[in-house]
Amino acid sequence: MTIFNIELTDTEQKSFDYVTTSALEWITNAAKNRARQSKEEIISILVKHCNENNIQLSVGEDAQVQQAYDLNLIKTAQQREDESSEGQV
C-alpha cells in the first residue's frame, strides 16, 4: 500500500472548506476513483489481448493488472513520458 502526504496552504484549506466538509475525504475519493478508472481500462486492454491470443486470463483484478504489466501491454505514465522525451532529442 502506498501512502501519500500532501500539504495545503491555509488558503487552499479554506478553499476546500468551501466545497467539502473533509478535504482529506475529497482528495482520497478523487484519487481512488481515478485509480478505479485506470484499473478498468487496464483490465479491458488485458481481456482483449488475452482473447485475441488465446492466453489464459489471471483471476482477480489485482492479478489481472499485474498480468497486463507482465505482458508489457501497458506502460506507466513515467515510461511513456520518458519515451516521448527520447524521441524529441
Structure notes:
This protein is mainly α and 89 residues long. The protein has one domain (11-86). 67% of the residues lie in helices and 0% in strands. It has 4 helices and no strands. The protein has helices spanning 10-19, 23-52, 61-70, 77-86. Helix 2 (23-52) packs across helix 3. The radius of gyration is 18 Å and the shape is elongated. The model has no long low-confidence stretch (mean pLDDT 94).
Annotation field: number of helices: 4
The radius of gyration over CA amounts to 18 Å
Give the overall pLDDT as a whole number: 94
Q: How many distinct folded domains?
A: 1
**Oligomerization state of this entry?**
single chain
Question: Roughly how many Å apart are the termini?
Answer: 36 Å
Helix percent reads: 55-70%
As residue ranges, the low-confidence spans are none
Q: Sheet with the most strands? A: none
Q: What order do the helices and strands follow? A: HHHH
Say how many strands there are.
0
Task: Tell me the fraction of residues in β-strands, as a range.
Answer: under 5%
C-alpha geometry: elongated
Structural class: mainly alpha
Structural descriptors:
mainly alpha, elongated, 67% helix, 89 residues
How do you describe this structure in short?
With 89 residues, this protein is mainly alpha-helical.
SSE diagram, text form:
Layout: H1 10-19, H2 23-52, H3 61-70, H4 77-86
